[in-house]
Amino acid sequence: MAGLVVLVADLFVGDGKKAVLGWISVAGLAAAALALLPLLDDDRSTFCLTGGGTHACSYTADRFTLVIQLLVLGGALLAALLSMSTLKDSRGDLPAGEYWFLLLSSAAGAALLPASRDLATLIVALEVASLPAFALVGLRHGDKRSSEAALKFFLSSVTATAVSLMGVSFVYAATGTLHLTEIATKLQEVDGQLDTLARTGVALTLVGFAFKVAAVPFHFWVPDTYVGAPLPVAAYLSVVGKAVGFTGLILVTVVAFPSYADVWGPALAVLAALTMTAGNVAALRQQSTRAYSAVRLLAWSSVGQAGYLLVPIAAAGYADNEAAAEKAVGSTVAYALMYAAVNLGAFAVAALVGRTQRLNRVSDYRGLYARNPLAALVLAFFLLCLAGLPPGIIGLFAKVTVFSAAVDAGLGWLAVVTAVNVVIALYYYLQWTALLFRAPEGEPVAHRAPAPLTAAIALTAVLGIALSGAPQLVLRFADTGLF
Fold it and tell me: 132, 281, 313, 446: which has the fewest C-beta neighbours closer than 10 Å?
């Protein structure tokens, strides 16, 4: 609704008052998030089939759904705050009305996906979240880099979606249903002649969601897309885009395909190892380049973090029972909540530095403490959380839950790979952190932040500190599960 209001209001609001569209969008996202709170105490479903002794629903608002929806809407809200200063500084190369409509439309699709309980609704929600994102990446007028990034993002995503649709059709042919709970039951009774078709369908269905989480080998679009997109869009993709992908993976694996865990469990374990290694090694190799972009570093960091997020989902494939699988999935959700808060905070500080340093290189952060002590301290805290070091306690505990999920599932080799990658990532996180406190080159230039950007930095900092002080707020999901 807020997206339509913004689109219509854009026709009547003068060029000097476009900021009101941003405040409408922020208010709409905040209202949507608040509207979820009364639903936390009760599971609700709609669009259900009840005939023939079956009960399957297409839309379910349970605890898992609501936690992910709060993550999505919170991430979109923070991205909206970042966007307000970006649009004000864009001098017309980012059309405000179209920008806000696309952002809200993508957020609506992302919020729909965790409630989807059939494959058709899942794919529709995935595309509603993705299609506006393509346009957001390439929305900057006259920017060849932005257009190239949008084209890469679009072509690779369309290919992955086509493969997933083929997988969905195979699963439907083998089971005769699209509802996730019904698929889980009927896959156990698949005729021997259809077993190969079903296994192929399971594997292909995972491709689209693996693309959204930037798992290897579907990660190649991430660095160029993040650098070419407006910075708030890159922040949005790094958190909300990943939430969409991981939610879809959890639903199709744990809910729909538990009987084929021998297919997706090992596959996701290998993908987790490859993804975290590719992301961290790529960030490490280019760290020595003076002109290395901070956003590109955050992009490769997000690929590495995706590998950690995949570990508990892979572990769910090796679980002995449903309760153990749910606890493993809870570890992914706990880690995702930590990652969302601190990664959006890092992007917010990057947006602040980018106001005076157009190239936004890592070297531009040298001496940030002398120019803006609070911003430097906050960014250092966010980087330490991502690295899993004190005082970023929530990052440390979140990584422990990932290790525990792998060890409990008997994936000792994956736990070792994860530990090695954590050590690799320490180097570039700590190197960037140390750079903040070095003596600046030349006269320090103060960074002045507009109110929305200040609010985004403050909100993420408060959230990160609160979670470090009370990590049980999110880590309890790793003990209780979410379904």
Answer: 446
Q: Are residues 187 and 67 in the same domain?
A: yes
Same domain as 101, residue 29:
yes
Residues belonging to the chain:
483
What are the phi and psi torsion angles at 61 (to 5°)? -105, 85
Query: Is there a domain that residue 52 lies in?
Result: no
CA distance 393 to 157: 35
CA neighbor of 214 nearest in space, from 298, 334, 116 = 298
Inter-residue contact 405 to 331 (CB < 8 Å): yes
pTM: 0.92
Report the distance separating Cα 426 and Cα 390, nearest Å: 12
- Do residues 272 and 222 both lie within one domain? no
Give me the residue label for tokens 């105490």: 41
Question: Does 28 reside within a domain?
Answer: yes
Asked if residue 281 and residue 137 are part of one domain, the reply reads: no
Alpha-carbon span 385 to 426, nearest angstrom: 11
Task: Check residue 482 and give its pLDDT.
Answer: 60
C-alpha–C-alpha distance, residues 219 and 303, integer Å: 7
The β-bridge partners of 361 are: 293
Cα separation, 133 vs 225, in Å, equals 11
Same-domain check for residues 252 and 267: no
pLDDT averaged per 10 residues in sequence order, the chain, 483 residues = 77 75 88 86 77 74 89 93 79 78 92 91 90 87 81 86 90 89 86 84 87 85 88 92 90 90 90 94 72 84 93 90 83 90 92 81 85 91 91 87 89 93 91 86 64 90 89 75 58
Q: What angle do CA 238, 131, 59 make, to 5 degrees?
A: 85
Which residue segment(s) compose the domain that 74 sits in? 1-47+57-256
**CB within 8 A of 178, min separation 6: which ones?**
118, 119, 120, 168, 172
Helices marked H in 2-95: 2-9, 19-36, 63-89
3-class state of residue 146 by DSSP: helix
Greatest Cα pair distance, the chain, in angstroms, is 76
Which residue type sits at 151?
L
Same domain, 328 and 302: yes
Task: Return the H-helix or E-strand segment holding 436.
Answer: helix 412-436
- Residue 56's SS3 state is strand
- 288-315: b (≥16 Cβ within 10 Å) or e: eeeebbbbbbbbbbbbbbbbbbbbbbbb
C-alpha torsion 427→432→434→437, nearest 10? 180
Q: Within a 13 Å sphere around the CA of 231, how many CA atoms are in the beta-carbon half?
A: 31
Amino acid 288: pLDDT: 53
Note the Cα 75 to chain centre separation in Å. 9
